[in-house]
Amino acid sequence: MSELSVDHLLGIKYLNEADVQLIFETADHFKEVINRPIKKVPSLRDITIANLFFENSTRTKLSFELAEKRLSADVINFSAAQSSVKKGETLIDTVNNILSMKVDMVVMRHPNPGAGVFLSKHIKASIVNAGDGAHEHPTQALLDSYSIREKLGDVAGKNVVIVGDILHSRVALSNIFALKLQGANVKVCGPMTLIPKYIDSLGVEVETNLRKALEWCDVANMLRVQNERMDISYFPSTREYTQQFGVNKTLLDSLDKEIVIMHPGPINRGVEITSDVADSKQAIILNQVENGVAIRMAVIYLLASKIKN
Amino acid sequence: MSQKVLLSSKEIHIILHRLACQLIENHLDFKNTVLIGIQPRGKYLADRLCRVLREEYHVKDIQLGYLDITFYRDDFRRGDKPLEANKTQIDFLVEDKKVVFIDDVLYTGRSIRAALTAIQSFGRPAEIELLALIDRRFSRHLPIQPDYRGRQVDAINEEKVKVMWKENEGEDVIYLVSN
């Protein structure tokens, strides 16, 4: 097995195609492991990982923690709400204090784009970006591509549309990088106010008509409208957004082919997708969650194998 | 680099049949026994033995699985090269079964130590036996010995045992390679 070309997972844009394939092949093995009666391997018993969450998270934090524990790593958790960050401590000071406790790897979510890159230049530990502002969320993009590969056999050549709030979404950006890297065709669909200006430079087409986008695609990745990141009003009302960009069963059944529906969660049922779509057999939302653990185990295992004794 | 033949194709053929007979002697109809090839190289020996048991000795219901031990090894982050994982395929429960580990070369015993830990993820076997085609005497790091052995050899640490199979390398032959 070759090894990753990087020492940190800061974003998909720092990976090459061989890295992505290596992560997927390793995740295949871990997916088998997490379906055993005993779902744990002892590989990382001498590794300590700190999960630093400076921003709220349930799914990602649980998924990372489970992945780390399935690999037998020692895990310490930190969330900004109960920490000295509130007392004015800087990011580097916080992290260096934690690293003095002999931590080998840091999994970090931070509201500021580039926080992971900044940290990687100042500290020695291996860093995994678990989401930095509206920048990247690499493990989400990897698990999304892995789920497409699992469902459709391959990512290359597939048509994928990302629907919703592209502007505020780190999931969208990481997904675009990952899908393009693997040779998929990508379109984005949403209100023009929520499509970033630089989108053309990513090699992605914009489609403002949801029906046309769905007719074109093999996979639709539905994103949540991130109200918490919106300082102004980007569309007139949620009801109007749902009418134009929400997927319901009637719309889905009227297409002449069966497309795959994905969602990174958390779902706003009745806004971007209706409940009957979220619970339909076309939706692979819960497979994504399961694959998330396998992908994160693979990423952590591969990065840990580069930490020298 | 020089290499000498440890076992020829004919000798391997005879040994495989002897090992098959010894397995039958202890496990009869294999009702409560499962065979586990240790990945990556034990798989080929396990496949071959299974074929001999089925085709030559008409043993019917043999359960065969492959166990990868990569994530259980004790040298993670200690070598120069990253460890390469292989496929684990065990489509049955090992709870209360007699398990026979099958590997081509028994050297330090560390792989088998890892396999003993790994198999516990699939249940608690009634007992575990070990079958090795080549047993490198005097090189063990752990108190592990085979229950069935093809040939015992004395090889120094610098020497390497190379097992080749018809299915992959074109012929059945085992070499002792020295630098």
From TrEMBL, chain A:
<feature type="binding site">
    <location>
        <position position="266"/>
    </location>
    <ligand>
        <name>carbamoyl phosphate</name>
    </ligand>
</feature>
<dbReference type="InterPro" id="IPR002082">
    <property type="entry name" value="Asp_carbamoyltransf"/>
</dbReference>
<feature type="binding site">
    <location>
        <position position="170"/>
    </location>
    <ligand>
        <name>L-aspartate</name>
    </ligand>
</feature>
<feature type="binding site">
    <location>
        <position position="87"/>
    </location>
    <ligand>
        <name>L-aspartate</name>
    </ligand>
</feature>
<feature type="domain" description="Aspartate/ornithine carbamoyltransferase Asp/Orn-binding">
    <location>
        <begin position="157"/>
        <end position="302"/>
    </location>
</feature>
<comment type="pathway">
    <text>Pyrimidine metabolism; UMP biosynthesis via de novo pathway; (S)-dihydroorotate from bicarbonate: step 2/3.</text>
</comment>
<dbReference type="Pfam" id="PF02729">
    <property type="entry name" value="OTCace_N"/>
</dbReference>
<dbReference type="Pfam" id="PF00185">
    <property type="entry name" value="OTCace"/>
</dbReference>
<feature type="binding site">
    <location>
        <position position="59"/>
    </location>
    <ligand>
        <name>carbamoyl phosphate</name>
    </ligand>
</feature>
<feature type="binding site">
    <location>
        <position position="109"/>
    </location>
    <ligand>
        <name>carbamoyl phosphate</name>
    </ligand>
</feature>
<dbReference type="InterPro" id="IPR006130">
    <property type="entry name" value="Asp/Orn_carbamoylTrfase"/>
</dbReference>
<dbReference type="GO" id="GO:0006520">
    <property type="term" value="P:amino acid metabolic process"/>
</dbReference>
<protein>
    <recommendedName>
        <fullName>Aspartate carbamoyltransferase</fullName>
        <ecNumber>2.1.3.2</ecNumber>
    </recommendedName>
</protein>
<feature type="binding site">
    <location>
        <position position="60"/>
    </location>
    <ligand>
        <name>carbamoyl phosphate</name>
    </ligand>
</feature>
<feature type="binding site">
    <location>
        <position position="140"/>
    </location>
    <ligand>
        <name>carbamoyl phosphate</name>
    </ligand>
</feature>
<feature type="domain" description="Aspartate/ornithine carbamoyltransferase carbamoyl-P binding">
    <location>
        <begin position="8"/>
        <end position="150"/>
    </location>
</feature>
<dbReference type="InterPro" id="IPR036901">
    <property type="entry name" value="Asp/Orn_carbamoylTrfase_sf"/>
</dbReference>
<feature type="binding site">
    <location>
        <position position="137"/>
    </location>
    <ligand>
        <name>carbamoyl phosphate</name>
    </ligand>
</feature>
<comment type="similarity">
    <text>Belongs to the aspartate/ornithine carbamoyltransferase superfamily. ATCase family.</text>
</comment>
<comment type="function">
    <text>Catalyzes the condensation of carbamoyl phosphate and aspartate to form carbamoyl aspartate and inorganic phosphate, the committed step in the de novo pyrimidine nucleotide biosynthesis pathway.</text>
</comment>
<comment type="subunit">
    <text>Heterododecamer (2C3:3R2) of six catalytic PyrB chains organized as two trimers (C3), and six regulatory PyrI chains organized as three dimers (R2).</text>
</comment>
<feature type="binding site">
    <location>
        <position position="224"/>
    </location>
    <ligand>
        <name>L-aspartate</name>
    </ligand>
</feature>
TrEMBL record, chain B:
<dbReference type="Pfam" id="PF00156">
    <property type="entry name" value="Pribosyltran"/>
</dbReference>
<protein>
    <submittedName>
        <fullName>Bifunctional pyr operon transcriptional regulator/uracil phosphoribosyltransferase PyrR</fullName>
        <ecNumber>2.4.2.9</ecNumber>
    </submittedName>
</protein>
<dbReference type="GO" id="GO:0004845">
    <property type="term" value="F:uracil phosphoribosyltransferase activity"/>
</dbReference>
<feature type="domain" description="Phosphoribosyltransferase">
    <location>
        <begin position="5"/>
        <end position="159"/>
    </location>
</feature>
<keyword id="KW-0808">Transferase</keyword>
<dbReference type="InterPro" id="IPR000836">
    <property type="entry name" value="PRTase_dom"/>
</dbReference>
<dbReference type="InterPro" id="IPR029057">
    <property type="entry name" value="PRTase-like"/>
</dbReference>
<keyword id="KW-0328">Glycosyltransferase</keyword>
<dbReference type="InterPro" id="IPR050137">
    <property type="entry name" value="PyrR_bifunctional"/>
</dbReference>
